[in-house]
UniProtKB/TrEMBL annotation:
UniProt-recorded name of the protein: Imidazolonepropionase-like amidohydrolase
Xref: Gene3D superfamilies: Metal-dependent hydrolases, Urease, subunit C, domain 1
Entries under Pfam families matching the protein: Amidohydro_1
N-terminal signal peptide: 1-21
Domain Amidohydrolase-related stretches: 76-416
Keyword annotations: Hydrolase, Signal
GO MF annotation list: hydrolase activity, acting on carbon-nitrogen (but not peptide) bonds
Classification of source organism: Bacteria, Pseudomonadati, Pseudomonadota, Alphaproteobacteria, Sphingomonadales
Length: 419
């Protein structure tokens, strides 16, 4: 390492998250590589990166003249991880309730938190996330995305959903004698198409609808938007080249989402075999958000011991039915309900609750990239892909908690952390 490069490296450590621009090719030499494409680890493989892209991967890759070699003993190198359900503008509900975050936290505070959350996400090896709504923080996600893209603050590649869309009166905060700001944009009837287009104009990469919700405290969730409303909204999004995520917990909300043409369905707490069969037939992916249910149940006082509360039992049953049905799975923890940077919890839970570990890792990388329609750029280690990579201590195919021990994160070929 030259003196200048050493100084730059020290500067990068002093300014956590500052990308150390890689001017020369880098040969990464971990103990093993999980490319995602074949779902196995390859002992002794190496990865060559140049100009922000993966150039070569395999056992016999050598460093060209002038390249830097980085030996990463004891690690497994993976594609940058992807979380398809985060809320960077929320922080854990056991710190502040959702209601108080939406009602009492000024936008600047929420944005400052989101900046910190974006950094924590990237440092945890999650190089791409889909943010499914600012929950009352307006269009601030679009500005955060620009700040990351312009290198002003560190963060993952963002796919954003702007304010998200709820049926008029269905969402929250609720229970006030006058209209209060809501956690998402309220629409009904013909207004839904205009709202979709407005959100896209404000930067939405994905359009998110809430297909069901609780109308009052203590009530069960009920379908909100009519099928026609959802169909019109989804069609407007698809016409604009945007995919659609739908929050739905009830079988009827999920059924309407599928029939309307949703690309992913979030939560599915009370799903049935029939609705998963419908999802499978229509190729709709399922984000079970297991980690959010786990966190919220613990915030309610559960300590993880048997017997499990009803919400957890229902979630396990729904997830098992989805696996059984062969629905395309998506890794998205609803991160923000619990701490940003702990995104890997969802992968660990999905494996702990019945998915093979290598399938869970594939889903969090290549699978999620396919859902985004970005398989040609991210989600696997192959020549030509963007060099988004993470090295973790240990072998996650033997123990997924290895994902919590990040040793190096590379984003677009730049090393952003190397603790
Ligand atoms: Zn969510």
């Amino acid at each position: 390492m030259t003196k200048l490069r050493r100084l730059l490296a020290i500067a990068a450590l002093l300014l956590p998250g500052t990308a150390l621009a890689q001017k020369v090719p880098v040969l990464l030499v971990p103990d093993r590589v999980f490319t995602a494409t074949d779902r196995v680890v390859h002992e002794g493989w190496k990865v060559l990166v140049a100009d922000g892209r993966i150039v070569a991967v395999g056992p016999d890759v050598t460093a060209p003249a002038g390249a830097e070699t980085r030996v990463l003993p004891g690690t497994t190198l993976l594609p940058g991880l992807i979380d398809l359900h985060v809320h960077l503008f929320l922080h854990p509900y056991n710190e502040t309730s959702w209601n108080d975050q939406v009602m009492k936290e000024p936008l600047a505070l929420r944005t400052a938190r989101a900046v910190a959350h974006a950094r924590a996400t990237l440092m945890a090896g999650f190089t791409t996330v889909r943010d499914l709504g600012t929950e009352g923080a307006g269009d601030a996600d679009a500005g955060l995305k620009m700040a990351i893209q312009q290198g002003i603050v560190p963060g993952p590649r963002l796919l954003i959903a702007s304010r998200a869309l709820v049926a008029t009166g269905a969402y929250g905060p609720k229970g006030y004698a006058f209209d209060v700001p809501q956690g998402a944009e309220e629409v009904s009837g013909e207004g839904i198409v205009a709202a979709v287009r407005r959100q896209i104009a404000h930067g939405a990469d994905w359009v998110k609808f809430y297909a069901d919700y609780r109308w009052g405290p203590g009530e069960p969730s009920r379908a909100t938007f009519s099928l026609d409303e959802l169909k019109a909204g989804v069609a407007a999004a698809h016409d604009a080249g945007r995919k659609v995520a739908v929050h739905a917990s009830t079988p009827e909300g999920m059924r309407r989402a599928v029939l309307a043409g949703a690309d992913t369905i979030e939560h599915g707490n009370d799903a049935t075999d029939a609705v998963f069969a419908l999802m499978k037939a229509n190729k709709v992916a399922f984000c079970p958000t297991l980690a959010a249910t786990d966190a919220i149940t613990r915030y309610g006082g559960w300590n993880g011991a048997a017997p499990e509360p009803e919400a957890m039992r229902a979630k396990r049953a729904s997830y098992a039915a989805a696996l059984q049905a062969g629905v395309t799975m998506c890794v998205g923890g609803d991160t923000g309900v619990f701490a940003h940077g702990a995104n890997a919890r969802e992968i660990e839970l999905m494996a702990g609750w019945g998915m093979a570990r290598n399938d869970a890792l594939w889903t969090a990388t290549a699978g999620n990239a396919a859902i985004l329609g970005m398989s040609d750029r991210i989600g696997s280690i192959a020549p030509g892909r963007i060099a988004d990579l993470v090295a973790v201590a240990g072998d996650p195919l033997k123990d997924l908690s290895a994902l919590e021990n990040v040793r190096l994160v590379m984003q677009s070929g730049n090393i952003v952390t190397n603790p």
